[in-house]
Amino acid sequence: MAGNDQGASQGVVGKVCPKCGYARKADEPVPETRCPKCRVLYAKAEADESESAAVYAVSSVTPEEEATNSSEPAMQKLAGLLQGDLPKKHVVLIGLFCLVLGYYAGREHLKYEMRSAFSDAFSGIAEGFKGLSDAAQPVDKQEPSIPDPESQPIQATLIRKGFSPKDLDNMKIREEITFTIRFENQQDRDIRAFDGIIHFVDLLGNSIISLRTEVNDPVPAYDFFDWHGLIDYNEFKDSERRLRAAEQQNIRAIFEPRKILYADGTVEQLN
What we know:
The protein is an alpha+beta fold. The protein has helices spanning 2-10, 42-59, 63-68, 74-82, 88-104, 108-129, 238-245; strands spanning 136-138, 154-164, 176-185, 191-202, 207-215, 224-232, 251-262, 267-269. The protein contains seven helices and eight strands.
């Protein structure tokens, strides 16, 4: 038995450790399955070396080689990697690297979609906290009747009209028509809040668009308040295209109040 053990030991004399490079000598006291110097198992060191060689082969592809192999579908390459013996952690790292590389390689449409998604999310949050005092909604009725402005307890004057375009760099994906309306209280009672319909008309009194709105700001008796409003612009709606295109000096604003809350707490319902 001793002779057999000696023969087996002689069979590994000169074996080089893959980890530390030590060449095994004769009559080493350490079992022949381990390196006498670093004590690592030869089998484990050889397996680690094989994994490192495989990872190096994947990560050492040059741009020229990648361009040459560009005709091979990316999914086919990935399938080849998954069928190999790479550890799972290496496959995951390679996959993450490819995703990051693909994003920063110029996939502008993906960046736009992500910006749009974030913009929609933040817009939804902002809408939940935004008061009704700057929001206006188009009236469903196509041909609203235009009231006599002189007979209204609250009169309106268009002070300013503008347009706010998209700004994708700042994650603004909506276009808006903006305007400033001066509401004048024609009564001897202080107003706390009110709602109604703003009619935008041309110089001949023809309706351009009518917007339902609510104002939660006080207007003292015989005084005025400048209200800043907006609507989301829809280029496919004729009324909104006309409002955007019309020159400010060619537009009048007529306000038709529906409900008025006075400072003393009483409410007046009109129309």
